[in-house]
Amino acid sequence: MSTVSSPRRRADAERNIARIVAAARTALGSDPDATTDEIAKAAGVGRMTLYGHFRTRPELVEAALVEALRVGEDALAAVDLTGDARDALARLLDSSWTLVAESATLATAAHGVLPAGRVRELHGAAAGRIHDLISRGQSQGVFRTDLPISWLVDVVHHVLHGAADDIRAGRLEKSDANHVVTATVQSILAAPTSNPPRQVTTT
Fold it and tell me: Which residue in 114, 203, 197, 111 sits closest to 161, CA to CA?
């Protein structure tokens, strides 16, 4: 009896977890203050079931962010980053922008309940991809070298999220966002055409 019911219970638990995380992504993606009760209702499970898998709201928010980043990572991993770093960056920003726009409110929820260091850690793969691309662009002579790469990565991150905020506030049309984001980032990263910049220590 137990050999049959145990796998069944595990399968049921896995399905419940998947439903809860999916509901959390949707709810928090619409409202960063969505409650666990609202998420449980959307997932079609009881509060006790939800708390049986996620003891606290921050745990649930983190699980939703991890899942969103996993899906995003799958999409970004398929982006062609070969060739000229400027063209590769444009392709990466095109895909990154779409993902950021879809998860901006979820990110707001995460920043509200998780330590800043943890949120940065979870975004490590995406930040690392931008870091490596900027480094390559510097080697190709098309990106500036007078500012630390870590700072430039942060600037790209802030531009992406700033555009998402402006769309929500009605200050930027969604149809214009991709062009605005790409043009802004490219202009920030572009190597000066005269007076070669001084080299700085990069991280």
Answer: 111
Long-range contacts of 11-18, Cβ-Cβ distance < 8 Å, separation of 24 or more: 13/53, 16/43, 16/45, 16/49, 16/53, 17/53
Question: What superfamily would CATH give domain 58-203?
Answer: Tetracycline Repressor, domain 2 (1.10.357.10)
User: What tens-digit pLDDT sequence spans the chain (203 residues)?
Assistant: 444 457 777 888 899 999 999 999 999 988 999 999 999 999 999 999 999 999 999 999 999 999 998 888 888 888 999 999 999 999 999 888 778 877 888 888 998 999 988 988 888 888 899 999 999 999 999 999 999 999 999 999 889 888 888 888 889 998 898 899 999 999 999 998 754 555 555 55
> What span, in angstroms and rounded, lies between the C-alpha atoms of 117 and 46?
32
Local structure of 54: helix, strand or coil: coil
Residue ranges per domain, the chain?
A: 1-55, 58-203
Please give the class, per CATH, of domain 1-55.
mainly alpha
Dig out the tokens for 177 from the structure. Answer: 């966002």
